[in-house]
Automatic annotation (TrEMBL):
PROSITE patterns: FDX_ACB. Residues 1-74 form the FDX-ACB domain. This is FDX-ACB domain-containing protein.
Amino acid sequence: MSTVIAKISSVSPMLSSFSVVDIFRDATKIGADKKSVTFSFLIQDLTKTITDEEALVIQEKIIKKLEGEGVSLRK
């Protein structure tokens, strides 16, 4: 998990924090070899207001990095 967090943290200089909030394991609800992880991240720029588009680009980069690590996003 720490390698995933390290890779995510390098996505953008505007990503000021990224952390694991919760890990849920229940074989009957999500599968025997799976876990559900809740992440929290803060995107900010101290010099200007971030646009929705800028935040969305960073969010998409985070998702791509997670998918590259074998993580699937529940939608």
